[in-house]
Structures are given as C-alpha cells and as structure tokens.
Amino acid sequence: xxxxxxxxxxxxxxxxxxxxxxxxxxxxxxxxxxxxxxxxxxxxxxxxxxxxxxxxxxxxxxxxxxxxxxxxxxxxxxxxxxxxxxxxxxxxxxxxxxxxxxxxxxxxxxxxxxxxxxxxxxxxxxxxxxxxxxxxxxxxxxxxxxxxxxxxxxxxxxxxxxxxxxxxxxxxxxxxxxxxxxxxxxxxxxxxxxxxxxxxxxxxxxxxxxxxxxxxxxxxxxxxxxxxxxxxxxxxxxxxxxxxxxxxxxxxxxxxxxxxxxxxxxxxxxxxxxxxxxxxxxxxxxxxxxxxxxxxxxxxxxxxxxxxxxxxxxxxxxxxxxxxxxxxxxxxxxxxxxxxxxxxxxxxxxxxxxxxxxxxxxxxxxxxxxxxxxxxxxxxxxxxxxxxxxxxxxxxxxxxxxxxxxxxxxxxxxxxxxxxxxxxxxxxxx
Length: 430
What we know:
Its cofactor is Mg(2+). This protein has helices at residues 12-24, 38-47, 117-128, 134-148, 158-169, 174-180, 187-199, 224-234, 265-269, 290-304, 328-338, 357-361, 366-369, 390-400, 419-426, and strands at 2-5, 29-31, 66-70, 91-96, 108-111, 201-205, 208-217, 239-246, 251-258, 275-277, 280-286, 342-347, 350-356, 404-409, 412-418. The protein is α/β, with parallel strands linked by helices. The two termini are 52 Å apart. The relative contact order is 0.08.
C-alpha cells in the first residue's frame, strides 16, 4: 500500500500538493488529516467527489510500503503516522519547501527553498507533460498563491511565478481562486479580534514593535491565522503573537506573523516544537498556558536578538558636516561641489542642526548669503540610534518626509543613513 499525506490544519498548499503528488504516484492513496482549514473545507465540500481521500484512521500501517509526505518535514505535523516513524523498510518520499531541517528522512522526492510545496510538484508535472485539467490547475495555483501571498511574500521565488504562469496557461480560474482564498471571517473571529485588540501588549524589543495578545478558546476555531494577521496590521506592529488557550485539550496554540526583514518568527517557534517561515509560523504547546509561552518568547528574543541589520552596518561614515558659523554661500558651494543635497551642522562633535540645499536656494538677499548657516538651519533634527533597525529608519523617513537620518550615539554624530541607502538595501543592491 502506498499513501500520500501532509500536515495537520490542511491549507491550500497542502491540499494542492497531495493532489499533485497523486499524478506522480498514481498507485498511492491520499490520506488527508482530520484538521482542515475552513476555506479548504469549503472548497472540498463542492469538489469532494473529484478528490477521494482516506481518513488517517483507515490506514493499516503494517500494509504501508511507501509513504509520500508533502508540505511537511516533521513527523509530529502528520496525522496518525506515528506507527510508521521507526519502520526501516519504509520507502519515504518527501516534497517540501520549508527552510528548517526536519526529522523525516527520505530516500527520494525534492526539497527546495521556494514559496510553496505545490511549486515543486507542478514543476515536475510540467517536466513530465502530465495532463492537468482546469480544476486541478485552479487548486494548484490556489496553493501557490496562498503560501506566497499572491507572489508577494519574501519567500516567493522566480520558480513560483513560472509555475503560476504555467497553471494559467492550462486554464486555472482566477475567479474561483479569489473566492477560495478569501479568509473566512465570521462573528466568532470578530469577537476574538476585538478581545485581542483590547488586551494586546505592544512593546519594542530589539528595535522591533512587537505585540502579544492572548485569548481563551471554546473548542476548535479555524482561521485564527487571518485574525493574527489583522491584529498585526491594525496595531502597525513588526510582529504579532496570538496566544490561544484551548482548555478542553489543555494546550496553547501560538500563531506568529511578521513583516519582511523583521522578526524571524520561525526561529522563535522552533524551540517550542513548531515551525514555518520567517514571516509566518506557529506552534502547539501542550500543558503550558499562554502566559508562560509569552515569557519564553520574550526570553528567546532577548537572548538571540532576531533583529534585522542594525543601522550601524548600513550608515555612511565619516560624515561630511559643516560648522554653524560657516556662511550660507560657503556651505552652498561645498554642497554643490560634493553633489550633496544637505548636511548635518556640527559644533565640536555635537549635532546642532541640519541644512539642505532647498533651504539655501530660497535665500536671495546678499545679507542672507553672507550670514551663518545657524540662522537658517533646522534645529529640531530627527535622528536615529546606531543599533536601531532598518524598518525603524524607514518608518521615521516616511513619517517625517525626510531623506536622511543622522546617526547619533549619546549626542555624538557617528554616521548618516539616507533614503538611497535604504532603497539599495531593500532591493539587494548592496
């Protein structure tokens, strides 16, 4: 007997991957975990006759000769597969895209850092010129889109886009995908989000704005990931941790969401027995309440940092500066000669202001041109600490509509970071 299975809490990438794997292993039966995300369950309710599945409870483990695992690399994430863990005679095939190293050791398959597991399987189907009907193409594209945020998440690779293009060529239906991927958001989700917003703690750690929010659950609630995503968006946090206590099962569900170049939430979930991607991860912790888990996460962040590149590593130094008593004409000539649009004004080592070419060109009277720049410089200077993060610098520039930030350490100017520096960093040009 050959079986294909995937992780618990089946999402569209998992469903797409097991169906795609069926093309590669036609003799295998798909075993779908019992816990299925709400939007996937809604899709299956319409298409269930097209995708026959076995329950994990129906598997006779002693008869299984080959196990194909997709979109997962750890035994604990599978449903009902524990009896197969120590089978030395089992032929294991693994198709996975997660960056962390798992404990499922496979003889065949493919593992690569792409946006979705479905991408790997679609690549192979295209290579083999397998026949894919429009319904299957739609499901496969839904899997890729869900895990890559419609090809916008940082985990997205060119490979994902090429796979998506291929699926559109074979008639994947974007109207169906738009409906299928719409997160289920009902009254229960609204009540949970309201509670999280009312009780959330918003703090700054390692230069990142992080929020922790806790709630008790009355039974199983699907779609919590979308609630935590909304929580992060509403609170404008770099990272959000939703900590949910399931009193019936005496376990905590941890869902973490983060922004690009921010907190690596997958690294924080791994010590808790969970996993995921740097911007989206989760964990299930039995016997420990959310308060204890929050303390663990805070300690992990304090110990390991999990901060992005500090401004110190990006800033330019030494900094071209002018003195407060230099004349407007002299400063203007220096800025023009160097091709600078502005400069910090420093007295000794202390930053006392900034002056820009835009400020200087407005001065036309001879008395103004011969006056010291301290008469026209901006004294209320927005600065940044050398250990601050790049997202912090970006927020300051956007908020104050400025193109440069002097980097100040205990009142002393140590460098400068510009809008151009951030653009080069974010576009991986440095």
